Every structure is written in C-alpha cells, then in structure tokens.
User: Fold FAD-binding domain-containing protein from Cladophialophora psammophila CBS 110553.
Amino acid sequence: MREYVPSSFDTNALAAKTRALNVLVIGAGLGGLTTAIALRRAGHNVTVFEKSRLASEFGAAINVPPNANGILLHLGIDATAAGAVEFKWFTEYSKTGDYVRVNDFAQRSRGWQHKYLLAHRVDLHTQLKDTATSSKGLGPPVELKTASEVVDVDINNGTITLKDGSNTQGDLVVAADGIHSRCRSKLTDQRPNPSGHLAYRFMIKKADALAIPELVDVVEKTGELVFWFDVDRRIVMYPTRNDSILNFVCIHPDQGTVGLDDTWNGQGNREDLIKTYEGFDPRALRLLGMVDESTLKVWRLMDMGPIEKWYAERFCLVGDAAHPFLPHQGQGGAQAMEDGVSLGTLLPRGTDPSEVPARLKLYQRCRKERAEFVQEVTRQSGKNIEPGQKNNIAKVMKFFDYNCGHDEYHHSLNELRKYQFKEQAKVYWRMPISFGPYPGPRQDAQGHIRETSHSNFITRSIRFKTSRTLLQNFLPTTAYTFLSGDTIAEASYIQTTLDNMDWLGGRGYNYFGFYMHGIQYKKKDGETVVGNYLAVMWEDLTDPILSGREEVGFPKLFADIAVEHTASTYSMQASWRGAGFLKLELNDLVACEACPPTSEDQVFTYKYVPSTGNPGFADAEYPICVPTPSAKEIKSFLQTSKCNISTNAHDWKALPTLHHIVSRLSELPVYEVVKGTVSEGTGVDSLASAYRIE
Ligand SMILES: Cc1cc2nc3c(=O)[nH]c(=O)nc-3n(C[C@H](O)[C@H](O)[C@H](O)COP(=O)(O)OP(=O)(O)OC[C@H]3O[C@@H](n4cnc5c(N)ncnc54)[C@H](O)[C@@H]3O)c2cc1C
Assistant:
C-alpha cells in the first residue's frame, strides 16, 4: 500500500468539533518562543514559563541560515526588519593572516528560497517575544510568565510545578529549557559534558574598526563572515545589526579555565583572550584588543550524544534540551526553531487532546534523525585539524545543502498527512500520485468513505434477445462462458442519469453500458460465479471515466449523451463529436411493480492495464466482479415492450476511436425486445465492493 497523502486535508472541519489545546512551554529561548508562536497560530492556548526576567538576552549574534529564516518568515517574522544582515561573503585566512579563499556566498545563496542572515540575538529574541505575545496575528496571544522557574513536571498528565509550589496542568508540556535542561532528566540520565573547547564571544562597533586603516581590508565588506584558522583554535567574525556591529566567536581548547560553571555567560578576560591567540594575524589581534572587557563573555562548549526518546505521554523536549548544539555550523538555534515549527504543524487546529501522545511520537519521527545528523556534522566540523590536514571548511560547506535546504514546515506537514492517511484503513491512489490519494466516488479528500444513499438515479434499460454466438466473442477469456448452450441469449443497453453526487459537488452525469446476461465465470479452482458481463460503458464526464477505469476496472469511454423523456417516453442519443452512434427509445411506458435485484444481477468485467513501451502486454489484467448492490429506494418503476435500438457505426473518420466497437455492436440482431424499463429512486452504489475474482 502506498504511504503518502493528498494535497489538502480539512482541519477546519475538525476544528469545529474540538477545543483548542492548552500548551505549557518551559523556557522562552529561541526554541520555546518559536514553538509558542507556531502553536498559537494553530489556534491553541499557549503559556510560556521562563525562569529569568528576560531583562536581556545574551548579547551576541547568531546565524539565521535559510532553514531558520524560512521558518521565521512562515511565522510572520522578517529578521532583516530588525537589522539582520545578509551573509554575502565567506573569507578564510590562515592563522597568520595569509589569504586562503573567499566564497561568494550571495551567489551560492541564490539557489535557496530564503536568505542566509546574520542576526543580533537580542533583536531576534525580541521579535520572537513580540510576535508570540502580540494581540495581532493568528491565534490567541501567548501568555509569557517570566521569573517562573519550573522545578518539576509530571510527564504523563501534563502538570508542571513552579518554584513557588504552584501547579498548572495542560494537554501538553513542551520543555524548551535549553542545554542545561532540568526537564530532560524525566526521559534520560544523560547530561551534556564539556566538549574540550571554550568560546569567547563579544561584539565591537564596525565603525571603530573601519577607523583603523590596517583593518579596513578585513572588515569593510558588507555581509562578510571571516575565519582565521589554526589547528586547534579559530576566530570567527561577522557583522550584524544593519552591518554596524562585528560579532566575534573565538573557539579554543579548554585548558582548565577557572571560574566557569558550565553555564552561559561567564565573564571573560581580555588578556587571556589575546594570549589565547598569540601568533595570530596582527589584524585579528588588533580586533580582539578592541573588546570592551565588561562585555567579554566566555562559554564552556558542552556536548551530548543522542538521547533515545524526546517525548512521553504529554511531554516533549525541543531545542538544546533535546539536542544540545555546538556552535560550529550555526545550526543550534535553527534546529530549535525547526522543532518548534514541527510541533505547531503536527498539532493543527482541531487536534483532539487524546491525539497528543501519538503526535509527539510523530514529532520525534519528523525531527530526531535530522537534528542529530546536523548535530553530528557540527561536532565533526569543530574537530581540531590533524597535522598535515587542511581545515574542515570544505567539509562544512558539503553539509550546507543538507542543513540549509530543508523546510521543516513542509516536511512536518507532509509527515502529518502521511500519518493521517495511514490512519484510514484503505485509500485509493491513482495518477497523478504526486498529490496523494485521489478523492472520488468512493472516498473524500480525507480518505473517508463516501455516503451515497441520498444520491438520485434514473435508470432506463432495454433488454433484448440476440445471438449468443456473436455475443460470446466479446468475452475476454475462456473462463467466461454462457450458462446456457442456446444460441439465443439476452443482452441489455442500460442508461443511467445520476444526480446529487457528493463527490461531484452535488452534480451528476449520464452513462450507459452494454451488458450480456446469463454469464458464468469459472475460477481456476473450479468454482463458478454467475452474473452479467459488462462489455463496454460510455459516460459523459471525465472524472467517473478515470476513477471507474482505474479504481474499479470498468471499460469506460467518453460520449456525449443526450436524454429526453416525457411521462411515458424516453429516448437517448449517444454521439462522439457530433456523430450519433446509438439511439435508444422507449414508448408507452406504464407504471408497474419493480422486481428486487437478485445475486445474479452482479456484474463482471475485465480489467486491463497496458504495459508502457511494451505493446500487446499488460501490466495488469484480471477478472472483476461488482456484487449486486444493496436495495435502493425505488420511487417509481415503469415498463414497456415498445422499444427501439438503432446503431450507426459510421466510419473510421467519424468515429476514429469507437468505430471498431460500434460496428461490432451493430452486428447484433435484435430478435425480440424482452422489456424496457425506467426506474427512479435514491441510493447509488459507489462500487466500493468491486473485487478481483482471482
Ligand atoms: C557560542 C555559541 C554560539 C552559537 N551560535 C549559534 C548560531 O550562530 N546559530 C545558531 O542557530 N545557533 C547557535 N548556537 C546555538 C544556539 O544558541 C542554541 O542551540 C539555541 O539557543 C537553543 O535554543 P533553546 O531555546 O533550546 O535554548 P535556550 O536559547 O538556551 O533557551 C532556554 C531558555 O529556558 C529557560 N529555562 C531554563 N530552565 C528553565 C526552567 N527550569 N524553568 C523555566 N525556564 C527555564 C532559560 O532561561 C532560557 O531562556 C550557539 C551556541 C553557542 C554556545
């Protein structure tokens, strides 16, 4: 069975039936706020509990790669409006300042839908916070509770306990409490460990650097990210806030620096900084020397391997709590945002609270593999350069496409669709398959079975006696035979007009078929089944022709079908591009009692799907049976023996695709009309019970 989904599914209909979810988010960092916005936009009530007062985010810059920028734009946030700078140049120097390479990153970025940006963390955080809590925008504003440290979580019933002892319960608790997550311990004993590296972070004004002539070369380009590499340490410098600030990240071995308690935001020392980069390009050292020591921060970079589970019954981890990131590829914040948008997408408006545990499982399926792969690539790209090896820049660039060329919103949406359609026992697929299962007479766009009992039908038929020896030539294999050895057999033209069909938006269409009666099919095991063989059918609408041919295996063709009737007469004219080829007429119709259908009214036909590039061979061919439909509600039934059938096979020019069929039907003599009938009522068989005989 295919695993995929249709292009749309109706969350609005679901929304009307269910209440919004109450979601509690722990932590108002990049991951927590993105999650809150995404869930708010899905219509849920979100409360964020943040332990700090959020007086200020850590003042540093952050890469906003295309995969993160796309999410921000999806959530209505334009980071460039808050001063984020486009990453345009990637320049690399050796430790001593020799020019190694420059990559035109703007050129590289042209293939990405969203720009690669360099944002100020405070600006980005403020944008996220404002968007979350704004009274404008989709969904109810997020309630942000600062100075609200969460000290415990009941991961099965969704209750959190704050430091002041108060409890709050929700349908879902999202722990976005960062690298030193307390909540993570609910799922694993694993904790992050020192990676062996520290990072100094600070910013200087670009104008100050430009004022020093020997620095102009390295700082003047707009949107330029500059690297100085040594085997075990590096300096990364890039601009942000409308190109007015230069941000520095200086990663180097951890030589037991004292005073660091493994948290963010340790105080750095300028002298140590300069000493750490002794022997580096004098321009780099000059830039490092410009730091305002009070703003110099030093981080111990922590790392943690994959954990097995990111979720429990009503609880999940996002961001660094689930997958702490080293900074080497600028993807930690981006992956936290991907987690957030994934949750918002997998829990759309209308999600019932009882569905939360299953959606969390799906969330892990969407996110874990990718986040951990990016985490591992990041880890590898931060490794020291072995003697004789070149630096890892080439390696880093190789993974840029994987990192940046991803849209988690689209990915999660598709995973949700796959999941929702897998929930439906069976759904029909037919071409084009790129858009998921096909809505049709038997299933709606969500894969639900169609209700057809209220649809209307008028069926007219002429049953007549004709030559069995001619008819039998229409049977596709020797497994089909006539029950009787008589040379006179019965056949019918049956025409139906349908109306009030849900799958056609309440509309209808006409069709007619040629049926042979008294047929038996003998299976390979000797068992026989009895019914009527449908040799050909014409319809005046493309949709049922396609669904009937592909899903059921009916031999359907197109014709214009004109129907006229009075209280006691009926006529039908079938034509192709103006060439009438069959006319049926019933006159002097009188009301009488309808006969109930019997099991022998079931219909046989033969499905044949030609093989591409292999004329004369089939990819599929097998006998089909449509069992007798359950009783319809017949409102009126008329009968007559005054019927007329006239055919006109024209020539190949007038009927270029039908001449061979109509000329064969024209050969059939009408020995005697058995009866003509008109029945009208409600209840239309969707043919969902059609099956392959063997
Ligand atoms: C030096 C360095 C440079 C980096 N550069 C980049 C970069 O350029 N690009 C990038 O994408 N990523 C970068 N990262 C990684 C990125 O910063 C993180 O991956 C990202 O911030 C993770 O977001 P988060 O929301 O999971 O956690 P955080 O941003 O750490 O937020 C966690 C929040 O939870 C709160 N909290 C914690 N415990 C509790 C509690 N018990 N109750 C309530 N609140 C609590 C905290 O106060 C905090 O506000 C860098 C990381 C480092 C160390």
Remarks:
- Residues 1-11 have pLDDT under 50 and may be disordered.
- The pocket of flavin-adenine dinucleotide is lined by residues 26-32, 49-52, 62-63, 149-150, 176-179, 182, 199, 201, 249, 299, 301, 319-321, 325, 327, 330-334, 336 (CB under 6 Å).
